[in-house]
Structures are given as C-alpha cells and as structure tokens.
Automatic annotation (TrEMBL):
Record's subcellular location: Cytoplasm
Identification of the protein by name: Sulfur carrier protein FdhD
Function statement: Required for formate dehydrogenase (FDH) activity. Acts as a sulfur carrier protein that transfers sulfur from IscS to the molybdenum cofactor prior to its insertion into FDH.
Provenance organism: Mycolicibacterium smegmatis (strain ATCC 700084 / mc(2)155) (Mycobacterium smegmatis)
Entry annotation: catalytic residues: 115 (cysteine persulfide intermediate)
PANTHER family given in the database record: FORMATE DEHYDROGENASE (PTHR30592), SULFUR CARRIER PROTEIN FDHD (PTHR30592:SF1)
Keywords attached to this entry: Cytoplasm, Molybdenum cofactor biosynthesis, Oxidoreductase
Gene this protein is translated from: fdhD
GO annotation, cellular component aspect: cytoplasm
InterPro entries: Cytidine_deaminase-like, FdhD
Family indicated by similarity: Belongs to the FdhD family.
Length: 280
C-alpha cells in the first residue's frame, strides 16, 4: 500500500532567517480503476481506502447501486516492468447480470485531484441517472445540529493535521453523529470514499443523512450525493451556480458558507429548522 504522507527536507524562510527543516506532505499517486480488466479511469488520489474509492466512483457513475453488484475488487500485480505491485491499479469484477460501463463513461486521459468531471469522454456523460430519489426524503434537520458538523469534521482529519493539504468529506446522521470520514487530495475522491464505505455496508440509499465537505460545493459533489441517495449536503465554502441548480432540480438540501453559527441555505430550506429565528 502506498504512503499517505511523504517527508521532505525544505528551506523555511522566516523573520529570523533561513533554516532547513523536515516537512510532511500529503501523498498524491495515480490509481487506475479497471472493470473486468478494461481500463475505465485513472484518478490522482491519496493512497488509502482505495477499494472504497473504486466502489464510490462506480456508484457516482451509475454503474452499481448495491453491495451485491460488485463480485470482487483486487489490486493488479505486474503493474510495473519488473512485475511488482505498485498498489496503483485496481480491477473490479461486477456481479453476474450487472451491465459493464458504457464506453461513453471512459475518461479520455485521467482525472486530476482537483476535478473528477473534466476527463469525461463526452458532454452527455457528465450527467448521470440516480437509482434513488432524494426529493421525497422526509428528513428534518436542525440548524443547531448542522453547525456542529464542521468542527467534528476538522477534529477527525488526522492526516490534515500533519500536512495541511487534504480535503475531507464526512457523513452524519440527523442527530449529528459522525458516521464516516475520509480524506484525500481530491475532494471528489474523498466523497467517493465515503460513498464506497456506505456501499460496502449495503447502506445505500443514504436516506436521512448529511454529507459534509471541507471546501466548496461543486456540481459533481452534489451529483455524487444524489447518486448515493443523500438528501442534504453542507459545505464550508461556496457552491457553484450549477451545483445550486442541480440541488434545486433534484430536491437536495444544499448549505454553503457553514461557518460558526451561520450558513447560507441555497436549496431545500424547508428541511432545516432553527428555533432562534422565525422561518423565512
């Protein structure tokens, strides 16, 4: 398994002068995901929870929806010239009767750690169709509970404490209990790892839950939440306009700028109650 972090010698410049010191950085390595031996995508990720990443990616792409849709996942040997295993190539075997990904899903080159959509082979492949409907989820959320989520997420970011360079995603229940947290250099990978964890436990659809992300709320992250049946998503930073449009279209509750005791509700405000103020 690859390292989650790497150590480097760096030169630190400060008011007192220059000094050489060690620094810990988040690891970034390519992971090729194959389905039945056929390459599907290469994503730049932080090693760790790779099987969950593959599971979540396939959920996000609409290939699988239940734990039983995957017959097995394994690292591929012989990934290098000397035949050694780099732990950077995964092969997913789908269960009998599960349709393999259409060629239109294949990524042209690779998925960067900053974007999981831009490698799609066609514009038509950007939108995926979910097996679940989030708009009819009757979940009720308390603003007082939602505002506790960023601090819980931050406290669970163990690798971030050492590197300061990782995104994180977490899944909470309606009572604010932290169910799962994952870190990665790619925000989309962190979300896929959470969804993959849920798929492995046969928890989809994730009704009555909130997805919390450490950065902004992009179109692709909202889409991943919808694909997993998550009815609400909260982000520390801003959403994009397309993310808001998709959230409103799909009936997903979307919160942005969740900082301290404040937040902006961009979609699905009817699900969130706050006893401190009258409902807008």
């Amino acid at each position: 398994m690859g390292r989650v972090t790497n150590r480097y010698r760096v030169v630190r410049l400060a008011e007192g002068g220059a000094a050489e010191r060690p620094d810990t950085l988040a690891a970034e390595e390519p992971l090729e995901i194959r389905v039945a031996g056929r390459p599907l995508t290469v994503t730049m990720r932080t090693p760790g929870n790779d099987f969950d990443l593959a599971r979540g990616f396939l959920v996000s792409e609409g290939v699988v929806a239940r734990a039983g849709d995957i017959a097995g996942i394994r690292y591929c040997a012989g990934a290098t010239r000397d035949g050694s295993n780099t732990y950077n190539v995964l092969d997913v075997v789908l269960a009998e009767g599960v349709t393999a990904p259409d060629a239109s899903l294949e990524r042209n080159f690779y998925t960067t750690s900053s974007c999981g959509v831009c490698g799609k082979a066609s514009l038509e492949a950007v939108r995926t169709v979910s097996s679940w409907t989030v708009g009819d989820d009757p979940v009720e959320l308390s603003a007082a509970t939602i505002v506790t989520m960023p601090d819980q997420l931050r406290a669970a970011q163990r690798v971030f404490d050492r590197t300061g360079g990782l995104h994180a995603a977490a899944l909470f229940d309606v009572d604010g209990e932290l169910l799962c947290v994952r870190e990665d250099v790619g925000r989309h990978n962190a979300v896929d790892k959470v969804i993959g964890w849920a798929l492995d436990g046969d928890r989809l659809p994730l009704r009555g839950t909130v997805l919390m992300v450490s950065g902004r709320a992009s179109f692709e992250l909202v889409q991943k939440a919808v694909m997993a049946g998550i009815p609400a998503m909260a982000a520390v930073s801003a959403p994009s306009s397309l993310a808001v449009d998709l959230a409103r279209e799909m009936g997903l509750t979307l919160v942005g700028f969740l900082r301290g005791a404040t937040m902006n509700i961009y979609a699905g405000a009817e699900r969130i109650s706050d006893d401190r103020f009258a409902t807008v």
